[in-house]
Amino acid sequence: MDLIQRITRQFEDSARAKHEALEVLAVPIAGAIEMMTACLLGNGKILACGNGGSAADAQHFAAELVNRFEMERPPLAALALTTDSSILTSIANDYDYVQVFSKQVSALGQHGDVLLAISTSGNSPNVIAAIDAAHERDMRVVAMTGKGGGRIAEQLHETDLHICVPADRTARIQEIHLLVLHCLCDGIDCMLLGVEDQ
Questions:
Q1: What 3-state class would DSSP assign to 196?
Q2: Is the pTM here over 0.90, yes or no?
């Protein structure tokens, strides 16, 4: 096995997937930036959820907003629904794992808030349940998926935004999701701080 050749192929595949995704994703990413900025300016908050690597992405995104991304600015209201082990295990034990995010959305979400729902397959049952709960709370949803969007693509409302990575390989989808999150953070900061170019 030639490890250098294998590593090179990973880099090249990732770069190609990102380049191909740009045409499809630029418009929905811009829409998500505008939606999230309006939410934050209206004293709303962004709740984020996902499983596994997507849980890490939800936490990463919340950290960049609450602390800072690349520019100095006041903290922004964001919360990852993946971090409280007592809440997660209590809900999973007393009810079922499908409700670990939806119960938190029902408890914490309000009209004007935004749910960032992350699922590489678009079929995660607990993320789907969280989207349903967000709709019941009159929240808008930004869904980040891949593989055609799965069941999540079918449940989104017209006022929601779908950032669906045009790829089938989980690693490529996750890599592009991270880039999308950085685009969201950068765009939100620029809109809030009035940055024209950087």
A1: coil
A2: yes
